[in-house]
Amino acid sequence: MDESLFIRVLGIKSPVLKVLDFLMDNECFDYSKTDIAEGANLSRATLFKAWPKLEALDLITATRSVGQAKMYRLNKKNPIVKKLMELDDTISEYFALKYCDSRACSCNDISDVVGPGQDLIKEIIKYESDSPSDERDRNEQLLLANE
């Protein structure tokens, strides 16, 4: 598995950061320790060594149990996690803009950076750059683009 942009930029391959990076990239879900170790590209032994630090700093939180397995997710209420998520977003934004500038692209080309098949993104950009007209028609066009 390739390193994330977050890990590459920081240049730190700490198990704690790898776990946080995995959970930041997958913040909507909860995971077992086995899933976290696999997703963070760590051995279970390494994860279990780093786990006490994650718990002591309240960076992760238990969400539920599935059978014998406890499920965990990022503690987004923790101020350290908030700052790390902000940093991750800033790094991503910086490189997206840098990539866009190096290709001398305009705002209409942002879907190339985001990914192919992003018609909704193109429609939003078009919607935002159009001169004001009948709001109802514009909203309806945007909704149709999402289908």
From TrEMBL:
It comes from Methanothrix soehngenii (strain ATCC 5969 / DSM 3671 / JCM 10134 / NBRC 103675 / OCM 69 / GP-6). Coiled coil: none annotated. Transmembrane segments: none annotated. InterPro entries: ArsR-like_HTH, WH-like_DNA-bd_sf, WH_DNA-bd_sf. It comes from the Archaea. This is Winged helix-turn-helix transcriptional regulator.
